[in-house]
Design a protein that fits this description.
mainly alpha, 2 strands, two-stranded antiparallel ribbon
Length: 200
């Protein structure tokens, strides 16, 4: 089974058939898809300017989509390396029990579904790398009451999500399943009760 980098090489290779290049980009999403496979594909297509069902997209547009995906993957891999180093130090210092961020991180190792979007057509419009930077920043500071990606105040608790965890606070504005560790207990309770959050 090919890894992300070898699939990326196929996307860039002008000697490869266009269908293979498109297929290889789709296969990259099996290795790294921050919004989930379908939502990440929809995001990349819209940002690069070709349709999700387009079987013959402009090769330059395929590469543009790949570049955005690679940049986001670099951001996430750097975060994971820092996370692993921190946990190693904590274990060395005797802190064996992981915290809530660690529990969340365990479910997203490798970057799949980091900012899960259950509806593949509703996702942030910003570049993937920027979305991940905002999410990582939120994970590294005190919990807040709004979506860490778009500052949206409308969070609603959704059930039967096609993801683990299968329930949680979803931002109405950008569509992401907001990681629970970035929200205050009050914000989580309000989302569960169906209240829309308002800034203080």
């Amino acid at each position: 089974m090919a890894g992300f980098r070898s699939l990326a090489r196929q996307v860039r290779d002008p000697r490869c058939d266009l269908a293979l290049r498109r297929y290889s980009l789709r296969k990259c999403l099996e290795r790294f898809a921050p919004y989930g496979h379908r939502a990440t594909w929809d995001h990349l297509c819209s940002r690069a300017g070709f349709g999700p069902e387009d079987r013959s997209p402009d090769p330059a547009r395929l590469v543009a989509a790949l570049v955005e995906l690679e940049e986001a993957r670099s951001v996430w891999l750097a975060y994971e390396a820092g996370f692993a180093e921190r946990r190693k130090k904590e274990k060395h210092d005797g802190l064996r029990r992981p915290g809530s961020v660690d529990d969340w991180h365990r479910l997203t190792w490798g970057g799949f579904g980091v900012a899960w979007c259950d509806d593949p057509r509703v996702h942030p419009g910003e570049p993937l790398a920027e979305v991940l930077r905002r999410l990582i920043s939120a994970l590294e500071r005190e919990p807040g009451a709004v979506c860490p990606v778009c500052d949206g105040e409308r969070l609603v608790w959704k059930y039967e999500l096609d993801h683990e965890p299968s329930t949680g606070p979803v931002c109405v504005d950008c569509g992401i399943l907001v990681p629970r560790p970035v929200l205050t207990p009050e914000a989580l309770a309000d989302a569960r009760r169906g209240r829309q959050l308002v800034s203080a």
